[in-house]
Amino acid sequence: MKPYWLEEPSPPRADSKLDGRVDVAIVGAGVTGCSAALRLAEAGLRVRVHDARGIAEGASGRNGGFALGGGAARYDVARETYGAEQAAAYWRWTEEALDRMAELGGDALQRPGSYRLAGDEEERDGIRLEYEALREDGFDAEWLDDVPSAAAGLFHGALSHPGDGSIQPARFVRRLAARAAQAGEVEFREHDKVEDVDALDAERVVVATDGYGHGLVPELADLIWPTRGQVIASEPLDSVLYDRPHYARQGFDYWQQLPDGRILLGGFRDVSILDELTDVEETTPSIQASLESFLHELAGREVEVTHRWAGIFGLTQDMLPLVGAVPGRDERIWVAGGYSGHGNVLGFASGELVADTILGRESPQLELLDPARFF
User: Fold this and answer.
1) Is 273 helix (H, G, I), strand (E, B) or coil?
2) CA 57, CA 277: separation in Å to the nearest integer?
3) Residue ending a domain, choose from 315, 348, 366
4) For 36-77, how does the pLDDT look when each residue is reduced to its tens digit (9 = 90+)?
5) CB 338 within 8 A of CB 315
6) In the list 24, 38, 100, 151, which could disulfide-bond 180, CB 3.0-4.6 Å?
7) C-alpha to C-alpha distance for 323 and 311, rounded to whole angstroms
8) CB neighbours (10 Å) of residue 230?
9) Which of 278, 299, 315 is the last residue of a domain?
């Protein structure tokens, strides 16, 4: 079935048709590629964006529609792993990106907050530590012993993030593309698969495919692991059961109720976790059955599933993206990807960051996210 997000038609765009060599070629017309294209166009560079599909038809049109601040690791773990100062700066960077997304996105992004739910006592202890670390460092977070939704009584406490959001990711990315086209000389070449990044007629190349395009840059093949996420959506329900994004079991389960009343639910990757380390974009019976069973539990009754789909995201060893020049490529080949399932906000922020780096602008995130840390 077609992903729910991609049923909406694309808005018109006034693309440029660029002849000859461009300043920057971007591979991938998802949130990262379109974010980078906008930033570069605003600075006056000539940009050509290539995608094997249409705009937002990869991971940007196939995810769960969560717009979350922070990273893939718990904040308390991030402080221990990356250092307190860098972890705090990283979290603030994502929150600032989310604010910019709200300014750009219009009705594609709403900010009702989110709930991170504890599936058991062990998880409760973990997210309680995260809550305390966030509050200690001045971040907006609330602790709830239970949640005021249809999930009440099913979990062991929750961490509330008031600034988080729900996004129609395809609508948002297509609006970014339209803004980029208006901002300057940007050409979008849809349905134009890139086989060889070195052959692109550009001064610099940004690979912005996250978990897709595995092996396109051989040096990154073992650093960004393609991983499949599966999602379903229900028929519209006649009552509001969940007023914001919810996620539980370390993020293996995530759901929200959409404006038309549907429950959109993803996850259960741990049902067959090794099988999901793949770039094969298809649903599987075992995970779909688990999703459907949990959907009925969330709805309190059996409901019809109207949409099923899969998408690919990129995992990294340290749960941080790779953003910067690929070592050994004379600063011609650049990468922004590896969002570990948090690509809507991190992808937008990383697109801006890789563009800023190409433009010679400094950022405190560069050292933390530099691909050179793995070389």
Assistant:
1) coil
2) 20
3) 315
4) 999 999 999 999 999 999 999 999 999 999 999 999 999 999
5) yes
6) 38
7) 21
8) 25
9) 315
